[in-house]
Design goal:
single chain, alpha+beta, five-stranded antiparallel sheet, about 65% helix
């Protein structure tokens, strides 16, 4: 019975206190002074109680407090949110939300937290916002934690993970909680587990966290301290110079500073007496040795600080051990971080190689598209067409014009591809009929004529479209990139160009291997005289072949225009690479063009990776390599037989 009475009495004492904790106003009344005049050191008590209360009204109070909208009514000491509107003050109850309007602010005292307090309130707000129903607020809270990386945020962040409904944000929270656990985990086991979980993450911020754990400071001592977590023992003369080592001793006031030549000169000037300094005539102070002797004499008289001899400097340096000491005192933690960082850097290096390969493959696809038409015309006809780049330009401008009339970008591209082929096919046939056919077997005249046509087409494009770059907009489904991890990514436009290059490869192989036109083209390529005797018209085949090559260049122009700028001079950016691709791969051979495009694409990206700051130098090195390559294999990677071989 006595125990029951004691228990009932305890409930009577405890219950009122628990009821008081149910309202926000009661918490604020407990900390009146801290709420009204908060300080950076005292505000933490209020914030801890608010966070621990779990009251939903604590979040809007913190926002109002941060924004300096909280006032205290002098008559009863209660706190309200003050809203000014229409020359009136509206007080909003912090628990119920009921409002009362007053004509002025008489009898109200405003709480004015300073900048440091407002930052502390912002940190507390983050903890509430982590579980806010509004996903934008939850995302903002996670972003705020990522910027500050404070130990106080680890617990609230971990507690909010289980109830996070958005899968993407949940993954972000888990990842951020792991990084915070690496830095601020409560136990060694927790930190090591978090570090191990980072070994598969290639992001820059994870590497930054691991590097923070492995951050070190230069130290020195007579002997290595037993309790020091040493990152590296530095060897004087290898890892740091003797001069740097001695300067560290001087900075720690463990060795006298070296006397510089300027200080010696100033001391000598200040101590000239009767034309003498330290027993040495001023006229004799024309060498470093003489000035040093005079200075040493002054030091012997106690007039200046003595010089540090090289021997004394060497001895002082030799008496100490120089090392890098981890800021993290636990060697087990730093060992785990080193292993994780090594694993991450290895994966990053592999991923960078894969990413470089994808870039090279994409560039090779662009070069293949630009060169395949030239490979056909050059291989079959032996014509050096310097206007091939302008057919690419014509195709790109065709796509631009179509988009002015067809606003649907997907449909406009579908229309532009065959239209660009038709226009450039017709232009190529016209060029062959009017100019090229009269210049067969005259390569120099053909080169000059096509070069002149190239300039004329460029000027015509400038007159029609102007000199400004024109946009050729890709469809929305080509926006963005395919991301494999934080290192490997490739844009959807590049993927589309690669797929288009594969389609062209298959189409051209089908035409050349499975159609009558392809059979006649191959016959004329190998032996035009024998083909003519079999009833094939080489003149007609040349015309169709030149038109086909020009039409393919037009389609390539549409694809390239989605990736690069569309200007009247864009063809000049690809004509050199196109000729190099054809010559290196093998004239007139589709597989040779593919091999040449791959070689040049991978070679250029490799050189740019070795020398990323100078793209022009990379192109120069590439051309030099190709010149050397042609010296050893003049007919290209895949050489033709028949007429091409004889030529």
């Amino acid at each position: 019975m006595l125990r029951l009475l004691s228990f009932a009495l305890s409930l009577c004492l405890i219950l009122p206190a628990s009821l008081q904790a149910q309202t926000l106003q009661d918490i604020l009344q407990t900390h009146q002074d801290e709420v009204l005049s908060p300080g950076r050191q005292s505000v933490g008590v209020v914030l801890d109680d608010l966070v621990a209360s779990g009251l939903p009204q604590a979040l809007p109070f913190l926002e109002a407090w941060r924004d300096r909208e909280i006032v205290q009514r002098d008559s009863d000491g209660l706190f309200f949110r003050a809203i000014e509107a229409d020359d009136a003050i509206t007080l909003e109850d912090l628990d119920t939300g009921t409002t009362t309007t007053f004509a002025n602010d008489d009898g109200l005292t405003e709480a004015r937290p300073n900048g440091g307090v407002r930052r502390a309130i912002g940190d507390a707000l983050v903890q509430f916002q982590l579980s806010d129903p509004d996903i934008t607020k939850r995302q903002a809270a996670v972003d705020a934690i990522a910027r500050s990386m404070d130990a106080s945020q680890l617990g609230p962040l971990q507690a909010s993970i289980a109830g996070e409904p958005d899968p993407s944000l949940k993954d972000t929270k888990e990842r951020l909680a792991g990084m915070l656990a690496v830095l601020f985990g409560e136990t060694q086991e927790a930190r090591i587990a978090a570090i191990a979980g980072m070994a598969d993450d290639l992001s820059v911020d994870v590497r930054a966290v691991l590097n923070t754990v492995l951050s070190s400071q230069p130290q020195f001592a007579v002997a290595l301290p037993d309790d020091a977590n040493v990152a590296q023992v530095l060897t004087v003369g290898v890892d740091l110079s003797a001069q740097e080592a001695y300067e560290r001793l001087v900075a720690a006031e463990l060795a006298p500073a070296l006397v510089t030549s300027a200080q010696i000169r100033e001391a000598l000037v200040a101590n000239i007496e009767g034309g003498m300094v330290g027993g040495v005539p001023v006229s004799a102070l024309n060498t470093d040795a003489a000035r040093a002797e005079a200075y040493d004499a002054l030091a012997g008289q106690g007039l200046v600080a003595p010089r540090v001899t090289p021997e004394a400097q060497t001895a002082a340096v030799a008496d100490h051990i120089y090392f890098l000491q981890y800021a993290e005192p636990d060697p087990v933690i730093t060992d785990a971080a080193e292993q994780a960082l090594a694993a991450v850097e290895t994966r990053v290096a592999v991923s960078q190689g894969i990413d470089l390969g994808l870039d090279a493959l994409s560039l090779a696809s662009i070069y293949f598209l630009a060169a395949i038409g030239l490979a056909i015309t050059f291989g079959v006809m032996g014509v050096i067409n310097m206007a091939h780049g302008e057919f690419i330009m014509m195709g790109a401008y065709t796509g631009f014009v179509v988009q002015q009339f067809v606003p649907d970008y997907t449909l406009s591209i579908i229309i532009a591809l065959p239209l660009a082929f038709a226009i450039t096919f017709g232009a190529g046939v016209a060029m062959e009929r009017l100019v090229i056919r009269h210049l067969y077997h005259r390569p120099l005249e053909t080169l000059l004529a096509t070069f002149g046509i190239s300039i004329a087409l460029q000027q015509l494009a400038k007159n029609i479209f102007g000199t400004q770059a024109r946009p050729l907009t890709s469809p929305e489904w080509l926006d963005g990139a395919l991301v494999f991890n934080d290192v490997i990514a490739i844009s959807y436009i590049r993927i589309a160009i690669f797929v288009l290059a594969l389609l062209f490869l298959g189409l051209i192989l089908f035409v050349l291997k499975r159609t009558r036109l392809g059979l006649e083209v191959r016959a004329v390529t190998q032996n035009p005289g024998m083909a003519a005797s079999m009833g094939i018209n080489p003149d007609k085949i040349n015309m169709l072949t030149f038109g086909l090559g020009s039409g393919i260049a037009g389609i390539a122009g549409v694809a390239i225009g989605l990736y690069a700028k569309v200007t009247s001079e864009m063809g000049a950016d690809y004509i050199v690479q196109s000729f190099m691709t054809v010559v290196v791969g093998g004239v007139g051979n589709v597989w040779g063009t593919l091999a040449g495009a791959s070689l040049i694409g991978f070679l250029q990206k490799g050189i740019e990776w070795l020398n990323p700051s100078n793209t022009l130098a990379a192109q120069t090195y590439m051309i030099l390599f190709i010149i050397l390559f042609i010296q050893f294999r003049p007919k290209g990677i895949v050489a033709l037989k028949g007429r091409a071989a004889a030529d």
